[in-house]
Specification:
Length: about 300
């Protein structure tokens, strides 16, 4: 347990550094937006292409690993939809608030997950995380937009979402890397070096951007709903991933990587989607901030348990 927490200290320290830097005059809001875009469109895709193009994962293991991840994602989505009437009655939430809880439970922060796995397991761990991204990003986006369309008055533009998925840099990078791997083309040494240099900057800058995006002034709002949403995401989703790992026989490092993906906070872009489609954006902002803070405690525990 202590060893796991020690391994995560650099991650937490970089997030805190990003938070502190945001409160100085060194960088403007536009600069932080530029850093985030650089990570999203260039640095992380470079890391994903490099690791997937050179990964060595057996096809049978890949199939079972993907099934485990989808089991957890669809399982959580189904449970939330089944219990939505009860949550509406017991927690006194409306449709938009439910969509924020749904996003908070099912979506995940790729920057944090990739950074932690990269620091703990190197390229082999990143390869498994890239597989998770390729498998769950498309269905997760479609499911969340469908839920927002159903429970709010927002525009149900599923066609637009499908187009955005096709232009998603993470999806494009995963497809490119997997194609280079499966076709046997691989990466020329010069291109590998280029992607290695670019990808090397992804982890640190990504975590700094996470810290810069924290908003502590919102934490005290919606305390009951935020606590409930944090518990679903940080405890419930990892438990479902453990169940999937047991069901499909996934053990060792691949299981731990999947648990990390399940135990990281929800995606920062959830706030944007909530605002665009009529969800409860203030509640979503609260969920993001509290989950990032609470995950500093829950993540080491989940990683430690996954190691058994």
């Amino acid at each position: 347990m202590i060893a796991v927490f020690n391994a995560l200290i650099p991650v937490i320290a970089i997030i805190v550094l990003g938070m502190l830097l945001r409160r100085t005059t060194l960088f403007s809001d536009e600069s932080w937006l530029g850093f985030e875009n650089l990570c999203y469109f260039v640095l992380f895709p470079s890391l994903l292409i490099k690791t997937l193009a050179t990964a060595k994962i057996a096809s049978t293991e890949l199939l079972l690993f993907s099934a485990m991840v989808l089991f957890a994602i669809f399982g959580m989505s189904l449970l939330l939809l089944i219990f939505q009437p009860m949550m509406k009655r017991w927690l006194h939430i409306n449709g938009p608030a439910f969509t924020s809880l749904f996003q908070g439970a099912t979506r995940w922060h790729g920057f944090i997950a990739l950074s932690i796995v990269g620091l703990l397991y190197g390229d082999e761990g990143v390869a498994y995380m890239a597989i998770i991204m390729a498998v769950i990003i498309p269905p997760l986006n479609v499911i969340n937009v469908a839920v927002l369309a159903r429970f709010t008055d927002g525009d149900s533009s599923l066609n637009d979402v499908l187009h955005k998925l096709l232009r998603n840099p993470f999806i494009i990078a995963c497809v490119m890397g997997a194609t280079l791997n499966l076709t046997g083309i691989g990466l020329p040494s010069q291109l590998y070096s280029l992607l290695d240099i670019l990808g090397g900057g992804a982890l640190g800058l990504g975590l700094l951007s996470v810290g810069a995006g924290l908003r502590f002034s919102l934490v005290l709002d919606h305390r009951v709903l935020v606590s409930f949403g944090a518990a679903i995401r940080l405890l419930g989703m990892p438990l479902l991933m453990f169940a999937g790992a047991w069901l499909f026989g996934i053990e060792g490092m691949p299981r731990t990587v999947a648990v990390i993906a399940a135990a990281v906070p929800t995606a920062a872009t959830s706030y944007i989607l909530a605002r665009q489609m009529g969800g409860d954006a203030p509640l979503m902002a609260n969920l993001i901030t509290v989950q990032v803070i609470a995950s500093a405690i829950t993540l080491p525990v989940m990683i430690w348990v996954a190691g058994f």
